[in-house]
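comment on this one:
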Amino acid sequence: MDLRQFLLCLSLCTAFALSKPTEKKDRVHHEPQLSDKVHDDTESFDYDHDAFLGAEEAKSFDQLTPEESKERLGMIVDKIDADKDGFVTEGELKSWIKHAQKKYIYDNVENQWQEFDMNQDGLISWDEYRNVTYGTYLDDPDSDDGFNYKQMMVRDERRFKMADKDGDLIATKEEFTAFLHPEEYDYMKDIVVQETMEDIDKNGDGFIDLEEYIGDMYSHDGKADEPEWVKTEREQFVEFRDKNRDGKMDKEETKDWILPSDYDHAEAEARHLVYESDQNKDGKLTKEEIVDKYDLFVGSQATDFGEALVRHDEF
């Protein structure tokens, strides 16, 4: 599959993962984990390292001496201090952790950016995106290779306009990120719900009934007996999804389903790091307070510099 077809599939499949007919298809969006480690500071600070740096970057710090860890941590602190007032607040720390938590999203955008920014001006216009993604279709609108390009293009344009806050049909990197990953932005969540309902609402009545809900997750595929998880999903729909008990989900009920209000792990971790490091208990951290607790934030396991010393340009 070339880039164009991949992006076309992405535009229709953002809100769910494809699966085999007998496997559950999940449309629910959850925040990615900060770490797969157990959060127990009495045992180790590994969870905190992953949360603060991201799992991959945390591994690189294991190769540094304490002195090098502290030096690089100081550089990171300068980046976290967004307003440059010499203090790191809980809010600034939360923003940094969320960025590390969603690094895979930003990496994905970076990987695609050059494909679409055709004039290399640091922006992506709707025309640039449309020409790259739908150029072949625009040249031959009567082609038939299994994709409904017209429908996809209309849908993409609607989402692009929603992501484009100033309405100039030119996306900054942040706006383009919102276009590619709308579930990550509050102002884009309505479009995620709308697209999801359009995918599932087969009879076009503006609601998702029980059979549409189940049919989106599971295909009978000629088999009479449903798996146990399908029966459970039927119960979930009746007991929890359809809150007003009218036999169908409206937009708000669909939003509650696919975009649940998860526990904010980044906020909890930011609060934890401030609590553990705030020596004078003024509710904010100086660079010195953070570096003094470098073992909590980044750690270090190396005993010498040697060839194991790992450096990354982003720091």
